[in-house]
Structure formats: structure tokens, C-alpha cells
Amino acid sequence: MARSRSSSSSTTWRYINPAYYLKRPKRLALLFIAFVSVSFVFWDRQTLVREHEEELWKLKEEVLQLQNQLEELKHDDIPVHKTNLTTMNIDDLPIDPIEIQRREKVKDAMIHAWTSYEKYAWGHDELQPQSKNGVDSFGGLGATLIDSLDTLYIMGLHEQFQKAREWVVTSLDFNKNYDASVFETTIRVVGGLLSAYDLSGDNVFLEKAKDIADRLLPAWDTPSGIPYNIINLVNGNAHNPGWTGGDSILADSGTEQLEFIALSQRTGDPKYQQKVENVIRELNKTFPADGLLPIYINPHKGTTSYSTITFGAMGDSFYEYLLKVWIQGNKTAAVKHYREMWETSMKGLLSLVRRTEPSSFAYISEKIGSSLIDKMDELACFAPGMIALGSSGYGPGESSKFLSLAEELAWTCYNFYQSTPTKLAGENYFFHSGQDMTVGTSWNILRPETVESLFYLWRLTGNKTYQDWGWNIFQAFEKNSRVEAGYVGLKDVNTGVKDNMMQSFFLAETLKYLYLLFSPPSLISLDEWVFNTEAHPLRIVSRVAPGEGSKQHKATNIRVRARREGRFGKA
Ligand code: DMJ
Questions:
Q1: Which of 328, 417, 514, 569 is the most buried (most CB within 10 A)?
Q2: pTM for the full model?
Q3: In whole angstroms, what is the distance from residue 490 CA to residue 481 CA?
């Protein structure tokens, strides 16, 4: 046994002796082939495993990204109107042929206004239709053209939109030695360009919005952070108008938040958002219990000066933006203070509401010191729409109380129109006992506020009466304001004497709100868009915290792109 074990072990050992193979080359070759094959199989397996691991890692990354996006989309899609209101799904209503006819008439009006501007005032800020020339009331920034971009897009006037886009590319130049209004330039130019970007996805508009916003930005470099209201577009020297005694104006200082926050979201650069959010933080430090701020603020101390409290000229859009930034910010904790400030201001607004005699029209009075003034600007007729929009954020009882107030105020504003011989509203109204309403300043400059409120009320209640009121107002514009070369205002709504100016907001706001009033509610849905004060819709995207801009910028753009692919609504 011992012998045989030793003989078998010596047989095994000879196979590992190189001399064995040197004498047998065929076996050596076979052994080599076997070795190469085994190595190849082993190496290939390793590579496969590594490749699979990489693939798996990439997929995990993608899943994570998609999960994040889904979360953000869920957040974005929280409906603006939570339906403790008596809302209905207006999209389910059959398409009304009258609505279609009316919408087409409004579109014709836009074509007439635009064609006239194109012919006589191309590239200028505004058209003077009677003398048929352009004027540069905003420093020659093409205000009407930029203000009209989104209206053209929404109405499907794509040839006109493309021609306007070409002008933006080739001729829009902000390098103007001009003292510009920070407010007007923001709401019309920054807002108009951002809206055109959100609708079309064309980067040209975003680049231009950034260019002009960068020129406006030094206006916020004041001791309190409350901006100066005028700035030179070339050298950045900023100041306030002389007639305010050096103060900044409330509306002019608190109506840049939507645009500058949107710009930070879309560029990934937090500097715009930081400047404008700081204004609200500063005002919040001394915010009064009734939430009503006088119209003048000292930019050095950040405190208000003794002056009028109003929801009309110079106060109006400050209150509007408190609500709208909350909506733009997806109503998250980061923007809670905006909603709180807005609700506080609504308490103040309630304290200003009075009723006329004999017809009991509700109106929002003004206040100076502790005295109420029985006066209301047509400009304050944006308030019914704002109140209706914000009403759904309250609990059921408060919500219907505010919605009813909005409806009452809209009725008053509609009567500002109905009570004059031309059926167009004057600039402001006084309320004397026993006389209901009396026109004060009697011009009409094609303002949008009342039709803006009718648009919101129709969207939120589904009540077609608001469409009928809007139609009546539109017909009054057609009758009194339409001339051969565009639309003009009236010097006097009693006599119908015409002025010589087609305001850019007529194309940006008045005609857009009227068009949307006769369109399906899914066209620029209020769940997905928020209108700036010049009626430029801005996409609601996830809120970017200051400092997190660049991280979120990419995700924001993915979302904006994805949603744009479904165009700008479901209509
Ligand atoms: C527009 O420029 C804006 O709506 C602004 O908030 C107030 N004034 C005009 C329209 O009347």
C-alpha cells in the first residue's frame, strides 16, 4: 500500500515539473490554452460585475432624482383654491359659443392695438395713436413690445411674437443713460421678459431679464435695504423723486418680490431674491397691528413717514405681492410670514370698508392719521380679485366672508363704469352721503384693475355674470377708445373726449385679462401660474432658499421645461 501511494504521488508531482512539459510540447500548448481561457472568463466576469455595479449606481441616482422631482411636483400642484369655497369645475362646462365669439373679438382688439404699434411706434415705449408716433416714456426700453410678448403668445399670435423676439435679440439695449423707475421697469420689463421665458423657454428672454435686473440692483443698497425708486441704467446712481421729500414709495418698494425671486429661481443666483426679501423682513419689524402702511417710507431708517394709507395709488401692489409671494412660494413655511402679513393687512382693509347711501355700495376708504377719507381709486379695484384669490387660505367661515366682500367690491367697481355716460370708469371716486358715487378725477387711461378682478372672480366662482360685466366694459372700450391707429384713453369719461396715448398695460393687462375671461380656466391655470402686477404670468416652481440657488437651479429648469412641454396650460 505504502509503495503504491508513493508511486501515485510521484505521478502527480511530475505534472508540475516543467521538464515534463518541455519533453511534451503538445501538452504545454494545451495547458497554455487552458490557462488563457480561465483567465479570460475570470476577467470578463469581473468587468461585467463592475459594469453592472456602475449601471445600478446610475439607476439609483436617477430614481433618487425622480423621487425628488415627484416630491417637488406634488408640492407645486397643491391647488391654489382649496375648495372650501363654492367652487365648481368650470372646465367641465360645455364650451359656450358666445364665449368663443367674445374671445375672438378681444383677440381682434389685440391685433388692432399691436398692428398700430408695429406700424407707428415699433421699438418705442408707447404709441400715441392720434398723432401716430411713438414716445419713450420709460427710457426707450420698448415697453409696449415687452409688455405684449406674453399676450401675443397666449393668444396664439406666433408670427407677431417671433417678430417681437427678433427685436429683443437685435435692438433691445438697456445701456441707456436714463433715470428709470425701479418699479415700472421691474413690473413691465423684468416681468414681461420672465413671462416670455416661462412660456416659450427661449433663453434670450432670461438673459435680457438678468441684464436689466443687474442694472436695477444697486437701488437696494440703502442703509435699511428699502430701495431708492429711481436708478440710472448706466451708472447705477440711485435716488428718490424730489416730491416725496426723499422718501421711498410703498408700492414702488414692495412690488419687485415676485420678479426678483423668479429670476433667482431661474438663474440659480440668489442675489436678486435676497435684496427683495430683505425689504419685507425690514417692514415686518415694525408692521402695525392693522397691517396698513402709509405710502412713504424713509429708506435710511426703514420706518414709515406720516402719509396716506390706501389700497389705491402708491400703496396697492405692496399688499398684492404679500399674497402672491406666498402663492409663488408654494405656501410653504419659508413664505408663511408673507401670508401672515397679508392677513393682518386684510384686517386693516376691513376697517376701511364703508357703504354708500342710498345703494349700499361697499368701498375701501383711505386713511390719514386717524381720519378716513371717502375716496377710492379705480386702481384699488384690483382688491376684489386679490381678496378672492386669498380667501381660500382661510377656514370656511372667514373664506366665504372674504369672498362675499370681494363680490361686493367688484360690484362697486363695475358701477364705477356703469355710472358714467361713456360706461368707462373715471380715475377715482368720492362717496358723499345720499349720492352713492361721484367721479373725482375724470380721465380713463385704459386701466385693467376692474377686469382683472372680474377674471379672478369668474375663475373662482364660475359665475358667468362676471363674464357679462367684462364684456360690457370691453364694448365700452371699443366704442369710446378704439381709433384708426390703436386705442386711446379718455380725458373725461363724462364727455368722451379722447387723449393721445395707448398705455402699454392695455396690451399687457386689460386685453389679456379680458381674453382669459372668455377662455377655459386651464389656459394659464391659477394652480400653476401667478400673475405679477402687470399681468405677466410667472410659473410657480419650487421655492429656492437664498443661498441654495445653484443647487436647485437645474431641477427648476427641468421642471419648467417638462411643464412647458405640455405648453402653458391644458387648454
Ligand atoms: C399697471 O402698471 C400695474 O397694474 C400697476 O400695479 C398699477 N398701474 C398700472 C395699471 O393701471
A1: 514
A2: 0.83
A3: 7
Q: Which residues contact 464 (CB under 8 A, 6 or more apart)?
A: 458
Residue type, 159: E
Mutate to test the pocket of ligand 1, among 144, 259, 295, 509 (most ligand atoms within 8 A of CB): 509
CA-to-CA separations, 567 to 148, 201, 570, in angstroms, rounded: 18, 10, 8
Nearest residue by C-alpha to atom 1 in ligand 1: 534
Residue 18: is the preceding peptide bond cis (ω within 30°)? Answer: no
Per the DSSP assignment, residues forming a β-bridge with 353 are 364
Distance from residue 316's CA to the centre of ligand 1 (Å): 9
Instruction: Write down the H helix ranges in 17-142.
Output: 18-22, 25-76, 97-120
Does ligand 1 lie within 6 Å of residue 534's CB atom?
A: yes
In testing the pocket of ligand 1, which one of 424, 428, 449 has its CB within 8 Å of the most ligand atoms? 449
Q: Residue for cell digits 381674453? A: 515
Say how many C-beta atoms besides its own lie within 10 A of residue 332's C-beta: 13
- Angle, alpha carbons 244-245-246 (nearest 5°): 90
Residue 108 gets which letter from DSSP?
Answer: H
State whether residue 217 is helix, strand or coil: helix
For ligand 1, what atom is nearest to the CA of residue 378? Answer: 11
Q: What is the pLDDT of residues 303-318, one digit of tens each?
A: 999 999 999 999 999 9
- Is 80 exceeded by the pLDDT of residue 145? yes
Taking the CA atoms of residue 272, residue 273, residue 274 and residue 279 in that order, the dihedral angle to the nearest 10 degrees is 100
d(CA 408, CA 282): 34
166, three cell numbers: 427678433
Q: Phi and psi dihedrals of 445, rounded to 5?
A: -110, 40
* 183 ligand 1 Cβ < 6 A: no
Task: Say what the pLDDT of residue 84 is.
Answer: 26
**Apex 503 CA angle, 499 and 505, nearest 5:** 145
